[in-house]
Structures are given as structure tokens and as C-alpha cells.
Amino acid sequence: MLWLWLTVLLVVFGAAVNGESERQTRHDSTTGPERPMGQRGAVVADSTPSRVKRG
What we know:
Helix content is 40%, strand content 0%. It is built from one helix and no strands. It has one helix at 2-23. The chain is elongated, with a radius of gyration of 15 Å.
């Protein structure tokens, strides 16, 4: 049971790291032809930290 828990924890951690790295890149990492930011149809890919409003 411990190994299952550790495996799940590592998968979730990897997904979080992947999501954060995708959020901070300006490179179009979506599939298909290159499109400018705001027209990619991907919420995370279209909102880099410089475009996110801070509260």
C-alpha cells in the first residue's frame, strides 16, 4: 500500500510540475499549427504570468 501511495504522489507531483512549466512558457506547445497567444484555445497556454492579473 505504501508503494501505491508513493507512486500516486509522484504522478501528481509530476503533473503539477508539468502544468506549472506549461503555464510559464510563451512557446506554443499546443498541437496543430502555431497560433498567437489568446487564440490557442488552451486556458493555461494562453495565460502566462505576465498576462495574469494579480489581486
